[in-house]
């Protein structure tokens, strides 16, 4: 990057972070691409830590994604190594070799099997990963491991992000306190499935892998798979959760166990908070946009319609221009290919129904709509009038900032 | 529009236009939305003229699209009335009434059935069409009808277009000269199917409707359905052809008749020329981009992959920044959902293969690639290495101009 990007106007401050028993993190400057900042994070997990993950569906995934999918065939995790600046994508056999080398070096240092080391890389596609620099930085990374390393880790994984992203929840399972804490990065090439995005959550809860995986998969649907910045799906996306099991909670083997309800809600909430931070840091974003679709033929159909609106450049540029151009919303519904009946369609902006049953609402009050469009959080509601299907997705506006950032990313 | 847009750097001059026997056109200022320019075109066709059409697949089409689909249940056309500035979309029952009123008034003036009058409207969605102004302008439009009215007609249908678009071909059917001439408009909300776009072609050839419709449908696939500016599908798109039958060509009832081969090629060529003019006038465009996909599992798959690349904001902004960011092309292939094998994928820019068989080409010559990216016409080739499927699509880059135009369209 030629110069640092201005911080997103939608940025959120880092929350009050705590520690997760059994997790230590560190961040170092390995000089992979960026100068004068950290670009490599290492997390160490206590033996017995269980992992679950959700990975990009892009058909050309990066080597680290392939590595992690393979590593997840056993439930255990002892380390997570993430670099920023180079995505290790489309790097052929050399890319897989780089993964093996990095995992082996980490495993040797932490005295664990290579398969218990999870890897991620984010940044430019198609350039060979300078694994020697990563491996050379590992001893310093190990020396810096600390239970308080969360904020530094959140900073080290940033690429075009303009603020570090983290969230925390304290809840109970069966009356026993457990904690969930996570970090994320992502700001461009963000679209389902999933956002261009790395997100790592840890908890001290004691949970078997099937429960953990099931919680993560379902939480991802309503969070990271319901956001889009630019409709582009990264080759490197991943969301992982690590459960150290050091809390005193009772054993749970069923994801639907009522004792897990509070934890599930808190995890979903934390995932959504992290996902919305990614949208808030959408490249060039000045407005966070929530699109709620109701009355569709199914939830699936509602989700597709909502994404079609959220990905429409014309809808997004209108929002950037603070123009309540509901006609473009109608266009986006129509182009989705999903069942829609023009004469039952209604559109609201900021809670004011502008169009109802196929026509503009005569003499609707424009003043609150105009005021709403000037705000930082925009709400668009669409009712199809066909059935009970509903969905919510989030996106941001499309501005000059997006063009600035992406027209010169590699220069 | 607050102020006129600068003419696209990719603009083409109007070609040397001729007349089509049996077609007279005029353009007038009806004051629908724009001031100080024409915004209504009328074309009159000689009795016996045959029409064929292709219309938007958007599920929320404008009232004029519904009108035309209905009018096309008989093959005859006597008039075409097109206004710019108001799309007459999402205007409920009033929108259909406006169509009926405009068609009736035109039919009365030209002494023909209302069903032989074709209508189109382009511009803002959701505002009531001021049909009284259109109807009031009809007598002047009739008075101005002229065989030489083509250029004026091309100007009258422009909205955010920055240059008028027309093309002409002179060919033979069975040794007898016939002519094809057409005009088009479109620059934003342009994506299959079809471009946000109006295109009208006339010919003096004598052809039955089934042949005409079949020629148009197939010509549209390789032209207007192979372009995209911003992935948004308009509610008003249409492509029509009118054949006056005043030429001396022999009768043809089979679209595959060898006597029609030259005409078919010329028509396809003219449709592609018009479609590329629409891309050349893509909102904010500074580069025309051709994406050629080969080696896909099928032509259909190749077409979807090509569109996925062409619609990727990250690919388009990279091109705007003259950055040969082939990694984003790989990402777009991967997100298409079509069969792709990372390790067989190759990418070329400007004829230089940068990536082959899943990895970057070691020491490829960057100089010609850098030079190519600075040009106005960019060529991206992707080979999947899987089968014989191929497709070509065209798009433009995504620049600050697009944001400028669409962030303030209604203001």
Condensed summary:
Two copies of one chain form a homodimer. Chain A has helices spanning 63-71, 92-110, 131-143, 150-156, 209-221, 261-280, 299-311, 313-320, 326-335, 366-373, 400-406, and strands at 23-28, 40-45, 50-55, 79-86, 117-124, 165-173, 176-185, 198-203, 238-243, 288-296, 346-349, 352-356, 359-360, 377-383, 389-396. With 411 residues, chain A is α+β, with helices and mostly antiparallel strands.
Task: Set out the fold topology.
Two copies of one chain form a homodimer.
Chain A: E1 23-28, E2 40-45, E3 50-55, H1 63-71, E4 79-86, H2 92-110, E5 117-124, H3 131-143, H4 150-156, E6 165-173, E7 176-185, E8 198-203, H5 209-221, E9 238-243, H6 261-280, E10 288-296, H7 299-311, H8 313-320, H9 326-335, E11 346-349, E12 352-356, E13 359-360, H10 366-373, E14 377-383, E15 389-396, H11 400-406
Parallel strand pairs in A: 4-5, 8-9, 10-14
Antiparallel strand pairs in A: 1-2, 2-4, 3-9, 6-7, 7-8, 10-15, 11-12, 11-14, 12-13
Protein name (chains A, B): Arginine biosynthesis bifunctional protein ArgJ
Subcellular location (chains A, B): Cytoplasm
Pfam families (chains A, B): ArgJ
């Amino acid at each position: 990057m030629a110069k640092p990007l201005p911080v997103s106007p939608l940025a959120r401050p880092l929350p009050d972070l705590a520690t997760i028993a059994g997790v230590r993190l560190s961040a170092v400057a390995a000089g992979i691409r960026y100068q004068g900042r950290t670009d490599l994070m290492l997390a160490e997990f206590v033996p017995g830590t269980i992992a679950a993950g959700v990975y990009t569906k892009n058909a050309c995934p990066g080597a680290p994604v392939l590595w992690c999918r393979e590593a997840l065939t056993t439930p255990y995790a002892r380390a997570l190594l993430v670099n920023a600046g180079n995505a290790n994508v489309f790097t052929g056999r050399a890319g897989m070799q780089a993964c093996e080398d990095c995992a082996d070096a980490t495993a040797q240092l932490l005295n664990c099997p290579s398969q218990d080391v999870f890897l991620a890389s984010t940044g430019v596609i198609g350039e060979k990963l300078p694994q020697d620099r990563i491996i050379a930085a590992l001893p310093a990374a190990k020396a810096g491991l600390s239970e308080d390393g969360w904020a530094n880790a959140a900073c080290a994984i940033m690429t075009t992000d303009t603020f570090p992203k983290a969230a925390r929840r304290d809840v109970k399972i069966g009356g026993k306190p457990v904690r969930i804490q996570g970090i994320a990065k992502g700001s461009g090439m963000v679209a389902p499935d999933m956002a261009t995005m790395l997100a790592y959550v840890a908890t001290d809860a004691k949970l078997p892998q099937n429960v953990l995986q099931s919680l993560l998969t379902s939480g991802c649907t309503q969070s990271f798979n319901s956001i889009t910045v630019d409709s582009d799906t990264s080759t490197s996306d991943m969301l992982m959760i690590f459960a150290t099991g050091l809390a005193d909670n009772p054993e749970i083997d069923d994801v639907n166990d009522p004792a897990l309800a509070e934890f599930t809600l808190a995890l979903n909430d934390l995932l959504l908070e992290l996902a919305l931070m990614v949208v808030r840091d959408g490249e060039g974003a000045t407005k966070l946009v929530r699109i709620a679709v109701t009355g569709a033929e199914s939830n699936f159909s509602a989700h597709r319609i909502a994404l079609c609106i959220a990905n429409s450049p014309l809808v997004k540029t209108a929002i950037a221009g603070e123009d309540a151009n509901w006609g473009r919303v109608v266009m986006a519904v129509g182009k989705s290919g999903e069942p829609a009946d023009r004469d039952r369609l209604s559109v609201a902006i900021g809670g004011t129904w502008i169009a109802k049953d196929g026509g503009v609402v005569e003499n609707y009050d424009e003043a609150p709509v105009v005021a709403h469009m000037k705000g930082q959080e925009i709400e668009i509601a669409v009712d199809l009038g066909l059935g009970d299907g509903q969905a919510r997705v989030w996106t941001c506006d499309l501005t000059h900032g997006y063009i600035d950032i992406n027209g010169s990313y590699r220069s």
